[in-house]
Amino acid sequence: MAGEISMIGSVILALFLAGYLGQQYLPPPKPKVIGLDLGTTFCSVGVFHPGSGEVEVVADEEGRRSIPSAVSFTTTAVLAGHEAVDLADSNPQNTIYDAKRFIGKTFEPEVLERESARYPFKVINNNGSAEFEISTNHTFTVSPEFIGSRLLLKMKKMAEQQLGVPIQKAVISVPAEFDERQRNYTIRAANLAGLEILRVINEPTAAAMAYGLHKVDVLNVLVVDLGGGTLDVSLLNKQGGMFLTRAMAGNNKLGGQDFSQRLLQFTKERVTQEFGVTPALKEDIHRLRQAVEAAKLNLTVHPTTNIHVPLHLQIQDSSDPPKKVMFNAEITRKQFEELNEDLFQKILTPIKIVLAEGYLEKEEVDEIVLVGGSTRIPRIRKIITEFFGKEPNTSVDPDLAVVTGVAIQAGIMGGSWPLQVSALEIPNRHLRKTNLN
Ligand SMILES: *[C@@H]1O[C@H](CO)[C@@H](O)[C@H](O)[C@H]1NC(C)=O
Ligand SMILES: *[C@@H]1O[C@H](CO)[C@@H](O)[C@H](O)[C@H]1NC(C)=O
Ligand SMILES: *[C@@H]1O[C@H](CO)[C@@H](O)[C@H](O)[C@H]1NC(C)=O
Ligand SMILES: *[C@@H]1O[C@H](CO)[C@@H](O)[C@H](O)[C@H]1NC(C)=O
Ligand SMILES: *[C@@H]1O[C@H](CO)[C@@H](O)[C@H](O)[C@H]1NC(C)=O
């Protein structure tokens, strides 16, 4: 009996090895499984190339590797990504964004009403679930998962165009805090786009995989994800090739927008000082906002930057036409940091919470992984480095870390990594995220 089993074992091993060796002499197969990051504000699709062992994040015709998570409905078409954003100003009621915040969730009616007040489109309460009301030639409603499906379909097509083969299978990432229902609705979105989901993985786990942490000997990994509007901190624990989320905490009202807002306020005050008039016209505020956003990005690489903004200052209680002026200013990184120091320090609060909940000292964290565009800010990297007394892992583009990890998992699922160690994820059903704001 035991002999038979070991015999079967040897046959299986031999077949496996034959397959593996055979593969060495064939042209590298095309990836069959894609990795999808369906983000709240941006989405990306990646593929793992078995030949080179590299992940490629698929770019559109214009070389952009992320598409905005927006879908716009017109009388003649449903557009997704950049094309939808281009319509956001002219078609605001029918351009849906942030759908991920609603997918698979049930709401108390008051909560949903409060949420929908923040958007230019109509959010309807359908027995506790959110739906969006669209009015083109006729009025109809669409679900958050339908919005998700249009974005996923767009990414599926981008990947098919890039690879030249039809794609039916994918791995997708979701926030660690997503419950089973939110995960199911995310899968439903993919199914509506004609994709079968082979695995759903947590975003922080994907980010850790982007750094190859599934292949090296680490125990505790801390993932800090700081995006435009939210901060998420997760503590992962790897045991026997499995990642387990030990603790999660975050602040859903802290992110890049807040840092820009501080810089905008500061800039407006400088306009007032210089011209004796506070900018109030919508267009002026819009131009200033764009200028400070660009300045913020520039200050990540340069110690100083200059802004030049044409303004039409309207003197209050005056019937004179607005005064045309050119506002020029130098902004230093130091000023930007001083304006935001208290906000930057707030990043440590959820970090301390996950350490406490995971019963870990900060010295016991083996690797720190930074995700999200705002983690490029040098002062933020410094605060985290000083807190832990070690450098975080930052070599992967923080906007693409999640999709990179999902694509690696897709490569594993697609059988591209024969005889390779791979990490699995154990879902932690009993975990709750601590939210501060
Ligand atoms: C909506 O109306 C326009 C003309 O106003 C027409 O061309 C278009 O086909 C209609 N779309 C739908 C979906 O009925
Ligand atoms: C509304 O939701 C509740 C539970 O969430 C369910 O029991 C009920 O059948 C639903 N009603 C309708 C009309 O779908
Ligand atoms: C999620 O989907 C699985 C498989 O289809 C099903 O067994 C489970 O009941 C679903 N859970 C929820 C909360 O919808
Ligand atoms: C950033 O600012 C510096 C100094 O004003 C300027 O020389 C540089 O061109 C700017 N770079 C970008 C990418 O805007
Ligand atoms: C980042 O991750 C890799 C594992 O892939 C590790 O070897 C490296 O030391 C880490 N740390 C830094 C600061 O890059």
Automatic annotation (TrEMBL):
PANTHER family per record: HEAT SHOCK PROTEIN 70KDA
Name under which the protein is recorded: Heat shock 70 kDa protein 13
Keyword presence, Endoplasmic reticulum: yes
Protein family according to the UniProt entry: Belongs to the heat shock protein 70 family.
Function: Has peptide-independent ATPase activity.
Keywords annotated in UniProt: ATP-binding, Endoplasmic reticulum, Microsome, Nucleotide-binding, Signal
A UniProt-annotated Pfam family: HSP70
InterPro entries: ATPase_NBD (IPR043129), Heat_shock_70_CS (IPR018181), Hsp_70_fam (IPR013126), HSPA13 (IPR042048)
GO molecular function: ATP binding; ATP-dependent protein folding chaperone
Signal peptide: 1-22
Location (main, coarse): other
Subunit text: Binds UBQLN2.
Subcellular location: Microsome
